[in-house]
């Protein structure tokens, strides 16, 4: 939505829920989660909020609700040729951030993994390196993932899968499953 639309949207929402217009930093948090909703979806988004919320929605609730009104971008699927131990191929690196205006409470945010193709394709998120130019914590995270998952080789994963499948194929196996139709 445009800046003007955002202003009207938040004002209407605050008036409806009898809430004061939030200030500065908080306001920009609202802008961040509401601005991706296209102009033409604003009315239905607004109706959705007043229908589904008894109280003024929290930022995270607004974010979830906004997702229903943000069209999925058509993008090609990017895959990593090798397993990225930073993000385990999710392209996401979680990090904690304290919000001074919210009693310094910590919230979990996600950044795009700077170390792989999947991460670099996630342009909707800030890149981890742009938030932490010193790469804070990333090397430790990678090491930890390598320790936890590094020993599982592709053949091992395949073998485990085959074991499960052959177990499921046993006629008089210890478990019975519904027949798939
Ligand atoms: Zn990665």
Low-confidence stretches: none
Order of helices and strands: HHHHEEHHHH
Distance between the termini: 46 Å
Helix content: 40-55%
The hetero compounds bound to this protein are: zinc ion
* Rg, alpha carbons: 22 Å
Major sheet: 2 strands, antiparallel
How would you describe what is shown here?
The protein has a two-stranded antiparallel ribbon with strand order 1-2. The longest helix has 16 residues, at about 155-170. About 45% of the residues lie in helices and about 10% in strands. The chain is built from eight helices and two strands, in the order ααααββαααα. The chain has helices spanning about 5-15, 25-35, 40-50, 60-65, 115-120, 130, 140-150, 155-170, and strands spanning about 90-100, 105-110. It has two domains: about 5-65; about 80-150, no CATH class. The model has no long low-confidence stretch (mean pLDDT about 85). Helix 2 (about 25-35) runs parallel beside helix 4. By secondary structure, it is mostly helical. Zinc ion binds near residues 87, 91, 115, 116 and 118.
Task: List the defining traits of the structure above.
about 180 residues, mainly alpha, 2 domains, two-stranded antiparallel sheet
Strand and helix map with partners:
Layout: H1 3-16, H2 24-34, H3 42-52, H4 59-67, E1 92-99, E2 105-112, H5 117-121, H6 128-131, H7 138-149, H8 154-169
Antiparallel strand pairs: 1-2
Bound molecules: zinc ion.
């Amino acid at each position: 939505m445009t800046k003007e639309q955002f202003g009207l949207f938040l004002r209407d929402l605050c008036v409806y829920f009898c809430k004061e217009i939030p200030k500065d930093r908080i306001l920009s948090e609202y802008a961040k989660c509401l601005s991706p909703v296209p102009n033409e979806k604003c009315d239905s988004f607004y109706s959705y909020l007043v229908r589904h919320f008894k109280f003024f929605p929290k930022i995270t609730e607004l974010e979830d609700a906004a997702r229903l009104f943000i069209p999925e971008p058509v993008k090609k699927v990017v895959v990593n040729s090798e397993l990225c131990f930073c993000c385990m191929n999710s392209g996401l690196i979680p990090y904690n951030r304290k919000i001074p205006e919210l009693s310094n409470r910590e919230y979990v945010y996600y950044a795009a993994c700077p170390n792989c193709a999947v991460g670099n394709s996630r342009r909707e998120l800030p890149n981890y390196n742009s938030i932490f130019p010193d790469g804070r914590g990333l090397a430790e995270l990678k090491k930890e993932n390598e320790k936890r998952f590094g020993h599982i080789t592709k053949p091992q994963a395949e073998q485990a899968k085959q074991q499960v499948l052959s177990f499921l194929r046993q006629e008089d196996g210890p478990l019975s499953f519904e027949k798939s139709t």
